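Case 278 in the screening queue. Each case pairs one protein sequence with one candidate compound; here the compound is C2E. For every case the pipeline is the same: read the inputs, emit a complex structure as tokens, and attach any notable structural observations.

Predict complex for case 278.
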Amino acid sequence: VLIAGLLLAVVVASASWLLFSLRLRPGKEILLGIKRNEFHVVYQPLLEAASGRVYGLEALLRWTHPVTGPIPPDAFINYAESQNMIVPLTRHLFRLVAQDAQLLRCYLPPGTIMGLNIAPGHLSAGSFHQDVNEWIAAMPPAHFDYVFEITKRTMVAGKNVAAVFDWLHQQNITIAIDDFGTGHSALIYLEKFNFDYLKIDRGFVQSIGMETVTSPVLDAVLTLARKLNLKTVAEGVETEEQAAWLIKRGVSHMQGYLFSRPLPPEQLISYLQQQADA
Ligand code: C2E
Ligand code: CA
Ligand code: CA
Ligand code: CA
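Case 278 output:
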């Protein structure tokens, strides 16, 4: 009877543990990943088109899951957004970037841009202002300039977006519209919201040199950006040919594998030192 009772207890305990961990699953994996320090940040240099100078970095999250290994950012960001986990995840990003910045600032001049991807859902979250304030307080004082890169995907959902943009500008944070040229009806947002940078999606850049009809569209986007007084950043620049074409059309800023992949801090520092020696 004693042994049977013990067995029963073990079965009940493991069953409830299983139920508990199953219930824990949706989204909580992200919280666990944060707790277990499974996330890290890589930084991709942003270059001034004319001079080739590194003027900034884009911070990109990486997640190495202990069981499945590296998870593609598009996948876990979408997952985090769908599970209402994007706010804790972005807070964690803020923490990691603030830590890395203590080292990185020694290798980058004051005024270097630190660009972060901010999910539109976070903008309308109640904690957004406080999250940003805490991040700024944790960053090295007066060294980096901040750019928040925002995709237009779900921007329409938040009605107070214009007010949030105003507030960000008051904090000296500038705003980039990310992935411009993907999806639909992006033009309306350019009129509606006060952006500083327009990031031309990789898809556009990759069509350069392929003699397709997309070059006139890219031309029109660049004209538009000039008229709206937006700085332009071409992303996904992989070839000299693309870079030359973009410079000729007046694109002011670039990033892509041609210059550097996103790198962890130590490798980024080597890259910066190589640039300085060249
Ligand atoms: P994104 O914001 O458009 O980031 C640029 C993506 O292009 C990065 O992919 C980068 O590694 C990749 N890339 C840069 N240069 C080249 C190139 O020359 N060729 C090619 N083929 N790719 C290039 P990654 O790191 O996989 O990130 C994918 C997306 O996940 C990002 O797209 C962004 O939307 C999202 N993401 C990444 N980190 C974060 C984050 O911390 N927060 C949020 N909200 N989203 C993030
Ligand atoms: Ca981005
Ligand atoms: Ca982008
Ligand atoms: Ca993208």
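Case 278 observations:
- Residues 2-35 form the longest helix (34 residues).
- The chain has eleven helices and nine strands.
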